[in-house]
Amino acid sequence: MGFDRRLTPARPDLAARFLEGEVAAERFVEGEAFHVIVPHAPLRPRPEAAASLDSEILYGEAFTVYEDRKDGWLWGQLATDGYVGYVPRAALSRGAAPVATHGVAVPRSHLYPVPDLKRPPVIALSMGARLQVTGASADGRWLALSCGRHIFAAHAAPLDAIVPDIVATAERFLGTPYLWGGRTAAGIDCSGLVQLALARAGIAAPRDSDLQARFGTGVEVARRGDILCYPGHVALDRGDGTVVHATAAVMAVTIEPRADLDARVRAERGLAPDQSATTAIRRPTGKS
C-alpha cells in the first residue's frame, strides 16, 4: 500500500471508513472520539512500551480511535497534526474533548486544585496543551478550567493569540533535554521544537523533519524564522549567523553558529567543503 503510515490510519487488516476505496484493508471502521487527559503520553508505531517514540500527545488534544485493543493500547489519529499510531488507553478518555478556548503558552505550567500558589499542584502541562477556561479569580491572576483546576493566568493564552516571532518562542526551550519524538518541555526533538514554535505563531506545521522540508515556501537565502533543513534534521535560523535547534549533538535545545552546524553535517555526510550542508531552506507560510 503506497501511503505514509504516519499520516494515514490504515493497516492491512483495518482502516478508517473514510479511506474505503482508496486503500486496501480487510475491514473499515468509523472512528470514535477520545481526548487526552494526562499531561502528555507516547505515540508509538507499535503497541509496545519498548517501541520507539514517534511523537507525543498533549493534554486536551483530540484523538480519533479506530481500534480499542484488549492489551491496553488504542490505535488512531491525532487531530492536531494528523499523526497516526498507538497510545496507552489510560492516557485518554472516551468522548469529544472540551471545546478549547486557551492553550498553555509557556514551556511548562502547573494546574492547581484552587487558585492558591501555596497548595500542591495537581499536574504540570507543557506548551500546546489545550484548555477550556470557564472563569477567573477576582483579582484576575488565575483562570478556572472546565476540569475543575486552575492555572496562573499569564501562563495561558487564547487560541487566537499568536506570537509571531518563531525564534523567540523556540528560545524559551533553551536547555530542554533532547528527546527523540518529544513535544514537551520535559524533552523535545528538532522537528517538535519547530512545530511548537510555529504553532504559537498561528502556523500549523507537520510533525517530522522530512515533512517540514516540504512545508512552506522554498527560498535561497535564509532570514530569521526560516527552517534550515538538513538530512534528518531541522533548525531555525536566528538571522544573525546562528541557529536555535534541539540537537542530539549536545542532547539539548541550544544556540550555535550555523557554520559549525554546517561543518558538522558535512563531516558526518562526507560532503566536500563547497557542498551545501542544507537540503532546503523553507519559509513558513499559512495560518492555522
TrEMBL record:
One of its GO terms (molecular function) is cysteine-type peptidase activity. SUPFAM superfamilies: Cysteine proteinases, SH3-domain. Pfam families: NLPC_P60 (PF00877), SH3_16 (PF18348). It comes from the Bacteria. The keyword Protease applies. One of its GO terms (biological process) is proteolysis. This is Peptidase P60. InterPro entries: NLP_P60_dom (IPR000064), Papain-like_cys_pep_sf (IPR038765), PG_Endopeptidase_C40 (IPR051794), SH3-like_dom_sf (IPR036028), SH3_16 (IPR041382). Belongs to the peptidase C40 family. Residues 160-277 form the NlpC/P60 domain.
